[in-house]
Write a structure and sequence with these properties.
homotetramer, about 350 residues, alpha/beta, seven-stranded mixed beta sheet, 12 helices, 15 strands
Chain lengths: ~350, ~350, ~350, ~350
């Protein structure tokens, strides 16, 4: 079996999910090294845990010492651009976690660097691979619900654990950057061929001590008349919640990735873990299983590995990540102005959330 | 037991639910007559079915022949104003089905006529009496979910059966008038003391042959920072759906009145009836029971009967109905302009939906 | 309105539910007195809470001072027989809470005393009135699921609070007496006209410090080939659970009275009450509403009140209670012998559970 | 990567699921041939569909032409014994679909043949690998629900499509052989270390034209006091249903593999496929996804492949299959006698169902 040599960039939460996914479900991926420029000790522990043979905190050494086919970038948002451009210049295929980067200018440069070298550049939107959502998409495409007229997607939990998510300098924005990007990408995925016409968003900061948004409702209008509604929150307790609704003129389909896939448990004693960000496990809990698989991570990674191995174009590209980012810009602008914002919309900003905060 | 003499005005779908509710749950109400100015024969059958002693198609005769304490108005929207004002001038206490009327001017006149005679004038928003939703409200008010920051309510089915719902002349608008009014009233009920700051709405006509809206998403902003999201649709198949979500800084509560209260049935043969507007009953169905009770109709009618008997102020008044109507105006305006509309907002219109349609 | 004068016998948990039901839903019942021979002070508080004008701890005084039409017996099992016979001899109509009494001989005497005086004697099996279960029965009777072949009913919680439930001298047995009686009665209710052929039961004591059964599985065979399966437990944590399944050759219907009718709440702070025996309310809980109504108590009490007022035969009689008790005998015998026990089965015992315990 | 050469024996429904599982999730398995002695044409189509290079209807040729490490036996029950013994004598590792075989004598011979050649011999009980059920097991083993006292498992659908399932000569029995075997094996898996003390079963034939059982309830008693309840039916419409309940002294866990993992869809038009044996797709349906994965097939096949490659003992062995078969014997005996049957129980029979049918 031909295999792809992978360097994982980053050793945090999402790198962990990626490693579990590679190890259990992507035999064609051979993770040969992990790089972390900020926490070499953490990276060392990560490498041990996941049996990765080499650890680097120096990019030059990484790329000099190791023969790498693709990099898998799992680091805070503000680092995406630099690491992508660097990897592209070293002729590596790139998978980058969401959101693509902080600004449209960064996105354009990243895309251009990959394009001129004909590198594969995938945007890691796992919802496009979540098997239950993909079943709902197949259903829709088979005509089961008639002509699509509305999509809904929501992702909610009580907020990330790492402090960088809550600062515009490292994250670019709040929950809209962190989780709204899933909705934006998934809406386009479900309504392929249609263009986003406008975005309206209402945002608040209701729970966390941050100037970023932690609760948002966003309405997207497509040029084929489809309406899409996103709800994203860092202020909903009780563990991760990820839901979709697909409305057509002949029917509807509902799916969710967590509670709707869980065992239902009551425990007087509590136990190790119920689901991502679920907190305490006394009393009733929704006990998840195979979280990575159900969210589409292994399928996504297997797909990109296959693209690299067999010279295929990724189903979700950096251009899709850029489009999601443009929608996020529009959402922030709308949240400030109270108006739906028409696309294209590409003002020059340092961080998308500035458009909401007003500077 | 002292009893209230009631005349039911109208003999259609909602009059039917009211009669079932009076008969089974409101012993203090004595329905002595039914009036229907448009379909006397239907009213006759209705009277027979519900054992109502007298039937009228002439208001003067109704009020001359019968000693009436209160009227219960269950007729198409465009008739509310005239029948209310008439009843008020005859010194009858009034319960009027939703929406209150077509325009704010009508509302003002109705309210004034009742006020100057010190009549009880209740706006029949049954969601304020639906026992499951009231349990969620009590929960919220006990602090169980912390400080409220977001409300959601949605009501969806595949569209009313009577043609008058689909015409602006008789209904004043589409699904926003018919079902959005529930959301608007319930948001204010749940967030009492706070004022509506703005309303944004996105509307479409996706399923029915009408120029009225049949699918809407509405975002309401309150002055205490609470966000409220309404979804109302006449384009969702599979039977009536009515749901709420109550988000606070310490928790969340979800409830729904139909699927979440149903038996789950599979039938190879089908059966009489699963739930309001549920259509066919082959295969899997959600079999409702006690629909009127679960939606709060008997509780609402018992409450108004008690108000009339014991000189109490209704918990939901015509002023609340007027406030919901103002929000509907703002929603229609917003749907045309793509902007959130700040309240107060009381343009002069013939029908609220004109604000969306542009004339 | 003609009204029935009621004396409530007992002032504990089930008397409380009955009083709430009378007050809110049975206008024709006029509860004029409460009697409690064991806890007069508790009865006093109970009377105050429920606005009952008179309290007695002496039966002679009760019946001398008050004009009583019917008694509603809500006391520990071992007191049913004596109080029923006494009331019958005073010519009162009788409603008695489940189980009917401790032994078949007691049952026979109670029935005979009422019969010779032509008194109404209802066995208070509320499941025969629970609106959701009655909907499922109507569905079955309409042919929606074809020919019935299997019934299931289970009732589970973590055990009663009063100590008398756990002693054979006061309760006659454990969870089979307390909750198994519901299943036995409901199976016959659903399969009317058919006779019970045999009963098999497996019993254990798994959680409580008692020699009574606290976890049972029972299989009932009817002479028309229908199988019925009961699960009853005092060892299932997480709040009251009451479920049915109705299987026919053309379909199936599932219903439950608690989780399936609840709001779903997550609370970091906890709150007053989620549902009967639900315990702590931190984290996820199933928040019940209208528990008495959903379990059928008001409907049951209204029915008996109507029987007394209008000389109708109760739908569920003491003969049904006796039949359930005979099935319980058979269940206990079976649990000891490991064999299904054929009916009729009426050994002479002091307490039904002796048949399991072996003395 | 070292790979195992597999011959799939049989080209029907379960072979199909195995092939999907190998192809997508078991890279170490290399299916080199399919054999079908009864339907060579069907096997040809099967091979084409699954890209299997060789097709045989002659065992000698299969084993002569191909270098085979393991055989995966997916054929009607009555063929298990012969094919296993044959494969063992040719020194092949063996995975055999459930139930193990028709009789305990067959089981003993199969086990002996493999044992003397030190062959891996796995019993394919996929429930021991279903990820949701395995999560519930881990939960239980972590102490989350306290001390186990009751297990439940049910599997129900409207009956298999192939006629051989309905004949004792080919199947050995009805739904108890076909699906009861899952429950029996899973109970032992969950309660490892404990021995089965007795089995009680009630059986009927309610829907199908067969002399085999199509609806059963079975109560198993373990020597550590655990009770286990199985329900298995070929008479429950609405698509495959597979559920577990795990009761302990400190809590409970519920899980199901189909409805509880599905998207919920309403379609006016119907669509291709909702779930195994779900039939029509008009109206409401539970739309399954990743059925093989959720039932544990890939995990089971990957495990055995790993056992063969790396000389490990399978987690579920033919001895477990034999133990399940002994429990089935006891169930059939019990269904005839109305008594719980104590193990060991190994009467000499031609088909297990004889014990119920009486010869």
């Amino acid at each position: 079996m031909k295999r792809v040599k992978v360097a994982v960039i980053g050793a945090g939460f999402s790198a962990d999910i990626h490693m579990e996914s590679y190890a259990r479900f992507v035999p064609a991926a051979d993770v040969v090294a992990v790089y972390d420029g900020h926490d070499p000790k953490g990276a060392g522990n990560f490498a041990k845990k996941h049996h990765i043979p080499a650890v680097y905190d120096d990019l030059d050494k990484l790329y000099t010492n190791e023969e790498i086919d693709m990099v898998d970038i799992c680091v805070p948002n503000y680092l995406h651009h630099g690491l992508c451009v660097d990897a592209a210049r070293r002729d590596k295929h790139i998978l980058v976690e969401k959101p693509l980067c902080l600004t449209l200018e960064e996105a354009d440069e990243m895309i251009a660097e990959c394009k001129k070298r004909s590198l594969k550049f995938m945007y890691a939107e796992e919802l496009c691979f979540a098997p239950k959502y993909e079943r709902a998409r197949a259903l829709m495409e088979s005509g089961a619900v008639g002509k699509l007229f509305m999509l809904k997607q929501s992702e909610k939990h009580s907020g990330p654990h790492s402090p960088w998510f809550y600062k515009k300098e490292t994250a670019g924005g709040g929950v809209m950057m962190d989780m709204g990007c899933h909705a934006m990408a998934w809406f386009r995925w479900m309504n392929r061929g249609a263009a986003v016409k406008s975005v309206y968003s209402h945002m608040s900061t209701v729970l966390h001590d941050t100037d970023c948004d932690d609760n948002t409702v966003t309405v997207v209008e497509f040029d084929n008349g489809v309406t899409a509604v996103a709800e994203d929150s860092w202020a909903r307790h009780g563990g991760m919640d990820d839901r979709i609704e697909v409305y057509g003129t002949q029917g509807v389909s509902y799916a969710d990735l967590f509670q709707g896939n869980s065992a239902l448990t009551y425990s007087n004693k509590g136990y190790d873990y119920a689901a991502e960000k679920a907190g305490a496990t006394l009393g009733w809990t929704f006990t998840m299983y195979e979280e990575a698989f159900n969210q589409g991570y292994p399928q996504e990674l297997a797909h990109f590995t296959d693209c690299v191995l067999n010279d295929k174009e990724p189903l979700v590209t950096a251009a899709d990540g850029r489009a999601a980012l443009e929608m996020i810009y529009a959402a922030y602008e709308s949240a400030r102005t109270g108006r739906s914002v028409t696309l294209p919309f590409s003002p020059k900003v340092k961080y998308p959330i500035e458009l909401w905060l007003g500077k």
